[in-house]
Amino acid sequence: MKAKAVKITDGVYWVGVIHWNSRTFHGYGIPGTTYNAYLVFGEEKTVLIDNAYVGLQDQLDARIEDAFAQEGKEIKIDVFVQNHSEMDHSTYLRDTIDKYNPDAEIYASANCIKFLEAQYHNFGDLEINAVGTGDELDIGGRTLKFVSAPMLHWPDSMFTFLAEEGILFSNDAFGQHVCHSKRFDSDYSMDYLLKEARKYYANLVTLGSPMLRMKLNELTENGLLEQIKMIAPCHGQIWTNPGPIVEKYSEWASGVCKDKITVIYDTMHHSTEKLAFQIAEGIMSEDVEVRMYFMQEDGPDDVITDILDSKAIALGAPTMMNKAFPRIGNMMYWLDCVNFKGTGSEKNALIFSSKGWGGGAIAKLQRDLEEAGFTVTDTLDVLFVPDEDVLAEAFEKGAELARSIKE
Predict the structure, then answer these.
(1) Which of 18, 187, 227, 242 has the most CB atoms around its CB within 10 Å?
(2) d(CA 313, CA 315)
(3) Would you name the residues annotated as active-site residues?
């Protein structure tokens, strides 16, 4: 096939692939995505940074060949840098090495080297150089600096910094799962891109928030952060103006939230739903933003995105067989996985439920929420269908929750 490489700056090209028809990744819905790889031409060595997903290698090959054609050079990759071993960035790596230079130098973190062999079982015969923060590679007039970045978002992750141009190849950090024909942030609305980056962060990076705070501090202290002029992630658009996304990452990793409450509920015969609506009315009466999710129809990935910058949640489920309604279970597992407590955000929670004869949902949900890092400040357990007095109580509990986040 034919495909065009996109020049980022002189001698640096995007040679990644576009996955137009991907609709889910890491368990959440997406409108397609990109798997970005980059080709850097030095005076002495040419470097491929990261790789592509299974089935999409023809795009990668076509763009690599086009980049060499644009440079007027014979095709030969001297160095392979693998910032992270996850399959969406590495499935075609061994084939690419064999095709373009079996004798090439290969650089990765120590964990990445182990992970590649554990996933593919065909890297053991290759000599791969383990690198980390402080290591550098001179490719002739250009210097690659390696930065360890564990848990952003795997234990093997690292960044590669092209010093002379100030380009940070950040792999999964600072990415977005979007799929467009143009490659740069300037081609699209900043509000749109930051919204997609927030969803990406909430679902994939939240768990690594403590490490992200440490990494941002480290980059600031060693003077590297101020040298970054562009961030080239492995998913989505390239940040030619890195300031806004770095600022947002700092906020999200530090638990900066809005006066906002996310209401999440499921229902059998609409009783818990009535409570949810009244709680929302109470919250709004205190001029606090509400986001509402009905788990019969909505996906947990969108819920997680709104919880990221919410100061509190209200979680509702009817009791079924002495437990919370099962459909809410996926949501609870998701909350436990990301664990917002790592951001330093102390999020309050109100739990509400309608029961038939015996209860049970409240106790179960409280245990689960506390394990996921929430502080349960109040509950509302209702027998069967709420009457006007109970609905008034639900309204007031919503108002109390709203007041609690403004104190």
Answers:
(1) 242
(2) 6
(3) 26, 84, 86, 88, 153, 172, 200, 235
